[in-house]
Amino acid sequence: MMEAARTYLLLFFGAAIVYNILLIRFIGLCPFFGVSKSIETSIGMSVAVLFVMTVATSACWLLWGLVLQPLGVGEFLYIPSFILVIAALVQFEEMFIRKVSPPLYKAMGIYLPLITTNCAVLAVAVESVKPGFLKLNIPYHYSLPEAVVYAIGVACGFAVAIVMFAAIRERIELAPIAKSLRGAPIGFITAGLMSLAFMGFAGLFKL
User: Fold this and answer.
1) Which residue has the higher pLDDT, 12 or 116?
2) What does the alpha-carbon distance between residue 72 and residue 89 come to, in Å, rounded to a whole number?
3) Residues near 7 by Cβ (< 8 Å), separated by ≥ 6?
4) Burial classification of residue 45, based on how many CB atoms lie within 10 Å of its CB (0-12 exposed, 13-18 middle, 19 or more buried)
5) What's the mean pLDDT when you consider all of the chain?
6) What are phi and psi of 206, to 5 degrees?
7) Where is mean pLDDT largest: 18-22, 68-72, 180-184?
8) What is the pTM of this model?
9) 19, 56, 89, 206: most buried, per Cβ within 10 A?
10) What are the tens digits of pLDDT across the range 150-173?
């Protein structure tokens, strides 16, 4: 029991912090720069990604193990199959947010449906059935609970990074920054400094 708990804990923190998908592996950067203009929209995007990433990873794990692999077509059809699953989930989520919170739906704009093609979501779904795809260096295949914990960890890491970035960008808007650096230039500089900070966690522990 203790060994299993330790494995899940290390898997979660490794996915969220040590191998942060945005700041260490640089995957899924479109919403990171596009939606991080305010903390509110960043939190909304984080919740959306958490839902899609967790449910999609679980569904893709089951699809891989129960359908694609037994039929012997896993290696050929896993990417289009996983994209279909993710697209269906995003469509459902988009309708839900538009019904429940129109202002949030409007603020997130094109980046909400773009979760369908967000490489972070697809990459985590693939990693759940093909460990090593994102270089997490785990020498065994995930069980379903491990895949879910991993997906939640990646999504939480995504949330931490984008909300921190949004908070910094809101402060930067009020700072006396040179005109030539305003906008995208200072955003890229800030993201680079955040990435350097997260690199300090490298080697913190090994699974």
Assistant:
1) 12
2) 25
3) 146, 207
4) buried
5) 81
6) -125, 140
7) 18-22
8) 0.84
9) 56
10) 899 999 999 999 999 999 988 888
Answer yes or no: are the C-beta atoms of 84 and 155 closer than 8 Å: no
CB-CB contact of 137 with 207 (8 Å): yes
| CA distances to 1, 69, 168 from 143, in Å | 16, 15, 38
CA-CA distance, 145 to 57, in Å (whole number)?
11
Q: Say if CB 166 and CB 36 are below 8 A apart.
A: yes
Lookup: tokens for 21: 């998908």
| In the chain, % of residues over pLDDT 90 | 9
- For residue 123, give the nearest of 45, 24, 29, 57 by alpha carbon: 57
Asked whether the predicted pLDDT for residue 144 surpasses 80, the reply is yes
Burial class (CB in 10 A: 0-12, 13-18, 19+), 194: middle
The H-assigned helical ranges of 35-73 are 39-63, 69-71
